[in-house]
Protein: GDC protein
Amino acid sequence: GITAVICTYPLDMVRVRLAFQVKGEHKYMGIIHAFKMIYTKEGGFSGFYRGLMPTVVGMAPYAGFSFFTFGTLKSIGLAQAPNLLGRPSLDNPDVLVLKTHVNLLCGGIAGAIAQTISYPLDVTRRRMQLGAVLPDAEKCLTMVKTLKYVYQQHGVRRGLYRGLSLNYIRCIPSQAVAFTTYELMKQFLHLN
Structure:
């Protein structure tokens, strides 16, 4: 995961910069122009990696809490209500697995919890990515400085968790489908 993030991070940086532009204030004329401007005006290749540290640091708690929550919900569900929530696995009838709709629900809950825990690091990443185009850029140079600055200026709800509800709209269905696919692939590959 970390290798993939490092390889694709410049694309994410350009995407954030292009998305941040408002009508009438186009600093970047397109993808290629954004790449050129960031490279020439923000220190070469290092300019593409502003905000990488909170992304990498946030990956572990996000994945950890996501899998922990899903596994816990799955275990509790199958232990407490096996007939209601479970069904025999396709590859091993002696093993119970969650029904598809329950898988989706547990995956969505797992995604929401993991996103809630790691979201301040996501805010930090975005703030650092936009740092060069924001007026307070000098206050958002490192992960710790950015976290402190956002907290001091805007607090928890309007700072560190700003935009979380919109992020749930993307994250919850994504994680629901990801965990359901994961569980189905385990059955198809005979891993139960």
About this structure: The mean pLDDT is 93.
